[in-house]
């Protein structure tokens, strides 16, 4: 049964914000990026860019019945991600390259649910197998500018990755971003 309803698919790669929301504790408490991605590359996308893209697609014509693969401008392995964190935060952040088992044990000890651990292991296995590094030009074409890279993301949220910062949630980040764009300094 078909439909004539217009649609647009936004297929986003790995959100940079996952490093803040899910993996912040490892950066703050252990000075490391602790994910079971092996040496595989990942094409990250900043959720702020995705939000802008969604607004453009919803308010401008020419996007009906299209599908976009949204990535940032580069694919990085997690050694490279750790180097960006080190440069921006001005302290050594490492990537110890944990196994899936080591990752699962650490997350479980932290109280993370088994289902979420399995989901994350599946996601990181795509990078481990070399399947997560595809970079497209869709984000840049829609935005009309280069999408944010990892350095821009870490610079924007550097204070959240410092040991003395309080735990932050994605909803708090969204509120913070909205406040900064309106000039509200709450």
TrEMBL record:
It comes from the Archaea. InterPro entries: Ergot_Alk_Oxidoreductase, NAD(P)-bd_dom_sf. Gene3D superfamilies: NAD(P)-binding Rossmann-like Domain, UDP-galactose 4-epimerase, domain 1. SUPFAM superfamilies: NAD(P)-binding Rossmann-fold domains. Transmembrane segments: none annotated. This is Nucleoside-diphosphate sugar epimerase.
